[in-house]
């Protein structure tokens, strides 16, 4: 039966002019649509976005997905497609993937990422492979890759990092620490001393001749 311009009773076994479908034909899903203060029943072949088809002996119904940010779901607690901007992971929707998983942009899914172990302790402070003779050096710590990513295109986190450190021993045992002299400055200083010595020697010779 049709009431007005819209076939609101299409697929119904029983229908009301005010409430639309009350019971649906076999294989169709009953969906209660709300428009403002009014609601009416429809019989659909598939449920709309945010709902899933629940089959029961009494009547098939469209039931709402209870998962946040889910566009379509397999059951009340398992999402098959998330809303735009969210990644699907084990039936849930995430803005960013959980730890240990990486986003797969083409499918908007979270897949197993590169898993790394715990950081080691910071190593010995050194510079130029020496642990003394300098005031400042570098210390390094590392961690191991525990599980490789599901895809080669997924990068692994950094497995080594260094930071500046102050050496415990500035002076090496058995030797006195000296700041390395600049070669150019030493040569220039030596040259100036030689020139001054030569100049003084020339003045002495000139004075000696005059007195004779």
TrEMBL record:
Keywords of the record: Developmental protein, Disulfide bond, Glycoprotein, Heparin-binding, Secreted, Sensory transduction, Signal, Wnt signaling pathway
Pfam families in UniProt: Furin-like_2, TSP1_spondin
SMART domains: FU, TSP1
Cellular component, GO, one term: extracellular region
Coiled coil feature spans: none
Top-level taxon of origin: Eukaryota
Domain Spondin-like TSP1: start-end pairs: 114-167
Family: Belongs to the R-spondin family.
Protein name as catalogued: R-spondin-2
Organism: Sylvietta virens
């Amino acid at each position: 039966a049709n009431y007005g311009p819209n076939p609101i009773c299409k697929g119904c076994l029983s229908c009301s002019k005010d409430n639309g479908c009350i019971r649906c034909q076999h294989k169709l899903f009953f969906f209660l649509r709300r428009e403002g203060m009014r609601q009416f029943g429809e019989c659909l072949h598939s449920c709309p976005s945010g709902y899933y088809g629940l089959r029961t002996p009494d009547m098939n119904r469209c039931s709402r997905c209870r998962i946040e940010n889910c566009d379509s779901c397999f059951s009340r607690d398992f999402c098959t497609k998330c809303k735009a901007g969210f990644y699907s992971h084990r039936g849930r929707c995430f803005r960013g993937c959980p730890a240990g998983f990486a986003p797969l942009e083409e499918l908007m899914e979270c897949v197993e990422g590169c898993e790394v172990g715990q950081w080691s302790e910071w190593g010995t402070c050194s510079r130029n492979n020496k642990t003394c003779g300098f005031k400042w050096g570098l210390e390094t710590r590392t961690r191991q890759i525990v599980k490789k990513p599901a895809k080669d295109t997924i990068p692994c986190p950094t497995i080594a990092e260094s930071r500046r450190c102050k050496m415990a021993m500035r002076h090496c045992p058995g030797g006195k620490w000296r700041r390395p002299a600049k070669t150019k400055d030493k040569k220039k200083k030596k040259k100036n001393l030689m020139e001054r010595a030569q100049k003084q020697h020339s003045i002495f010779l000139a004075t000696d001749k005059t007195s004779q």
